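Listing S7. Sequence submitted for prediction.
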Amino acid sequence: MRMNSQDKLATIEELTIRGMENLMEIWPGELEAKLRKMTLAWCHKLSSILFPSNSIKGMQNLEVLEVKDCRSIGVAFDLEGLVWEGMLDMALPSLKKVELRHLQKLTHVWKDNSPGIQGFQNLRSLVVNECDSLRNLFSYSLAKLLVKLQEIEVTECGMMESIIGNETNAGDVVITNMIMFPQLSSLKLNNLPNLTSFCFEPCTFEGSLLKTIEVINCPKMKILPSAFQRKLDQQKADFSTSSPHHLLDGKVR
């Protein structure tokens, strides 16, 4: 897709692109955009980086991102190389919902080995399905920014090893008493055969707002964070009491 000018692309608020087999680039370098919602599907020749670092600062209004079955995408958000100029310099501050489905080459949702990362503070929902090259969902550096995240759903990701990986940025100090995902209400981890842990670093989770937890067909996952395990045990006990003849298939297996 080629626009007549960058100005036309900058005025679009909702962008849906489906089945454009030969589309290789969407963003023509740095662009101040009004885009609020973006949906991509079946665009197999796109650049391996969906949002290059030089496009991220211009996406201040993006709220919803949905990407499905784009074979070439390896990185959703490339934060490497960004120059952070202060606390007001935020990456995608309006982003609320991200859905990534059937992206076979996706290795990073966020590629973020850049010091001083700020942003993503309004993300509420992250759904990742059938991304078989993805080993971790977040780095520690990125996860600690997601103070409003309410929903995490990860399913059918064959190589997923940990939800929060052990990558930290240069100079990043792991804060052991910092509560991660304080507003998390729903956690679903289904069919992740190589998932061994939720978090490699010594993270703290409160889980006071957690309403639903599913951990199904994760055979290598032996230990959940204690707050999540308590909720899972309570959920199974409540279900067994109300329906004694049916067992909740929501245990760590």
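Caption to Listing S7: primary sequence and predicted structure tokens for the chain studied. The domain at 6-242 is CATH 3.80.10 (Leucine-rich repeat, LRR (right-handed beta-alpha superhelix)). The chain has one domain: 6-242.
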